[in-house]
Amino acid sequence: MTDIKEYFLSNPSSSQVLLYAVIILSLWLIEAVVLATSWKDKWRHTLTNILFIGTALPVQLFMTIFVLMLVSWCAVHHWGLLYILPFANSYFTKYFIGFILLDFCEYLYHVIMHKVKPLWRFHLVHHSDLQLDVSTTVREHPAETFLRMCFLILWVFLLGASFGVLLLRQTLQTVANISSHTRFRLPGKANYVLGWVFITPNLHQVHHHYQLPYTDCNYGDVLSIWDRLFNTCQNDLPETGLIYGIDSHMDKKYNSGFLRILKIPFQSRKD
Questions:
Q1: What gap in Å lies between CA 95 and CA 28, rounded to an integer?
Q2: Alpha-carbon span 185 to 200, nearest angstrom
Q3: DSSP secondary structure, 5-37, as one string
């Protein structure tokens, strides 16, 4: 157990990639078996999405260098909101409050990507998937990966987040993001209870419905409390009414080609 802990602490990037791969592969296989999906169709859909790893991962790893440099700088200079809060040196402030604030920042980032039109052009690549499943998690335009990491650098600078809380945050975010993109749904009562605090697959599936106002709801990443606080929570869309995608890009052939998808942000389509 000590060796595993040491590996994760000394290899944050590679450990995240490993965790990502194990969870995605496991859920992908379960989806295919339990949901009785056509292996041919599922593999074709997954192949398109998985190609985004090749464009986004290098950007993510490169930008992580700057994130870690900033974390070190903040630690040396005691810079950021977390350093001026009461009991700044306590685990409660460093980890619990730090995690809560980072999760709010991620909620804010998601709202910005939807509301600022030039940024939305890149984020809609993620929303253009017409067959939501666990592979949709990695369907991210490399330009959005760059933007997401730039925002993370901003959040670290403002908060003074430590390496420890970032590692905790990224680990829980990895699990939450992958699980929320599965086609599985929680039973009614479980979804109701967990949904008061966490973003469940049921809630995130509504976010991937192809039309407004559902696209502009359930922005939360790990926690759903921000959606409830800012009145962006929507959980009344039944599974039978869900249609995945985005209404301006519903052409199945157009959305299944990797290179065509990469060009989406730069093409003029109806809003």
A1: 31
A2: 8
A3: HHHHHH-HHHHHHHHHHHHHHHHHHHHHHHTT-
**198 in helix, strand or coil?**
strand
Q: Structural domain boundaries of the chain?
A: 2-266
Global pTM? 0.87
Q: Is the four-CA dihedral 163, 167, 170, 176 of positive or negative sign?
A: negative
Rounded Cα distance, 219 and 222, in Å: 10
Q: What is the pLDDT of residues 49-99, one digit of tens each?
A: 889 989 998 999 999 999 999 999 999 999 999 999 888 788 888 899 999
Whether the bond between 213 and the residue before it is cis, its omega within 30 degrees of 0, is yes
Backbone angles phi, psi at 198, to 5 degrees: -115, 155
Looking up tokens 């979804």 gives 191
Alpha-carbon torsion 237, 113, 163, 11, what sign? positive
In the structure encoding, which two tokens stand for residue 99, read together?
A: 């995690």
What are the backbone dihedrals phi and psi of residue 169, each rounded to the nearest 5 degrees, phi first? -60, -50
156-182, pLDDT tens digit by residue? 999 999 999 998 998 898 889 888 888
Residue carrying the six token digits 């994760």: 8
